[in-house]
Amino acid sequence: MADPQDPFRNGLSLAARIGVELAVTIVVGALLGYGLDRWLSTRPWLMLAGLVLGTVAGFRNLYRALGPPVSNSKKGDDGKSA
Amino acid sequence: MENPLEHFELHTLILLRLFGLDISINQAVVMIWVVCAAVFLFFWAATRNARLIPTKLQSIAELGVEFLRGLILENMGEKGMKLFPFIATLFFFILFSNLLGLIPGAYTVTSQVMVNGILALAVFALSVIMGVALHGAHYLSIFLPQGTPWWLMPLMILVEIISQLARPITLAVRLFANMTAGHTVINVLLGLVLLGGVVLGWMPLGFTVALYLLEVLVAFIQAYVFTVLTTVYIGDAIKLH
Description:
The complex is a heterodimer.
Chain A lengths: L6 H34 L4 H22 L4 H11 L1
Helix pairs in contact in A: 1-2
Chain B lengths: L11 E3 L2 E2 L2 E2 L2 E2 H21 L8 H21 L7 H18 L11 H23 L17 H48 L1 H38 L2
Antiparallel strand pairs in B: 1-4, 2-3
Helix pairs in contact in B: 1-2, 1-3, 2-3, 2-6, 3-6, 4-5, 4-6, 5-6
């Protein structure tokens, strides 16, 4: 339990994370747009824009979490050695 | 047949009102006290007569604390150690809530999205406070990922704002959804045991036992995930690219 780099546990935590993350990010984008729509009475355009932006953000997070060059840990390692 | 979602409902035990706010004591509040007491008693018992060669309980507690220390150092760096008490409290509170909620008849505090929401908001507020305190106005650059081409900047800022705002919500919803879903499935299967009777009932009973064990694993994983993401989010604010 003391090793944070255990691949099995990393895989489990990733699996537990990403599904909800994708869904919630899209919903947050759409709801932000909806809220702005109600405030500025521009229905339905900002909600659609928010939905698109939320989807972009959701997939970008997904890509960042899964993407081939593991940006977070790699960058940290490079920073330490440089 | 009993409604499988019934045991998530809150029942007021003591009605309390303060300036028009409903601060009644319900079973979730009582369970929060129980969880806090359990965490306290566990560490009290584990460190009561701490020795160099640890007792069983002490080594479990030390394992947990060492593990959290590694997590913080990895994701937040040395500066993050100042937040060790917060992160450790968060981890052990969620872990004990999840585990104690698995005792039949007990209430699962983390199946209330408001409880998780408050925890997640605290994490979010702390990350913003840390970021602003350490970097000042430069903290705003968290909304602009490094190496963005100039023509993508307006779009990326909007996208980053959305994904920053989604962070506390994902934290809260993930924990809530996992705990609620697991308990509901176990409840439904138990209903099937009663329906199946002696002849067919043993089959869902086997699944119930298997799922219950899975839920114990989920209790640990969810506490772990919440804590890891807390350290990552606050670490992002501390390191800022």
